[in-house]
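Reply to dn_fold:

You asked what the input looked like. This is it:
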Amino acid sequence: MKLINKALAFSITSALSFSALSAQCDFSALIQEVSLGSEQQNLSQYFAPALLQDFKKAKTREYNMMVYLQESMEQISSEGKQPSTDLFMSFISEHIAGIAQSSETDPFDLQSVNAAAERFKAYIGSIHSLDDAAFFDAFMSGEYRQESYYYDFFQQAVNKLDDTIKNNDINDCSVNFELNLELPENIGSQYHYDQTLQVTMDDSTNKISSSDLLKVMFDFSGAAYDAFELPEEADNGVDFSLFPSEHLYTDSNSWFPSTGY
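and this is what came back:
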């Protein structure tokens, strides 16, 4: 009887292992969706709900970071010209430009940067009451996509996913590839992203369960999405972990922890 039970257990384990190894996924629906016009797209259907929730939280963090950076610029300006003024203003404006991702922004022109910041905040504010999926679809196919470059990066990543699958005859549920984005002239090498991507699909739901395709649309290597804490030894970067991810702070950064910047 024990031998039978062991044999049965081995058979079940082997079957499960084989099933896991032979799992196949099809990314073609997402790839085809990206080729459609924005008015026909419903991209949220291809991503796990947890990813969509994290996406909205990340955009909320970016909004609150924008409020903080703009108020910091105002404070620096009010203090009069100091030896470090130009350095701080340049640092802040480049960070704002990286968040706003406007294709028509000059990161070295304060007026241009502030205009992009206001456009970003206005759009996020207009769609923030939507649920996670609707928020994602509005951001990915709405009016803010025009004159912005984040969707181009997403499209480049999906196209590279498609090429990788076709060139290597892949039908697995996880695909790894290197991505070299074609960056606009106005940001050049200033855009920080992870070049090694892993795209994974949950074969039980047929939804993408890994975040790399979404993180490529965020500057600072997806720091707002992951909200990781900036290491103390870091020379540069943005610590989005300090910023609220649920509510938009539209008037003041008085909520910001005094132990922060």
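Residues 25-36+44-229 form one domain.
Hope that clears it up.
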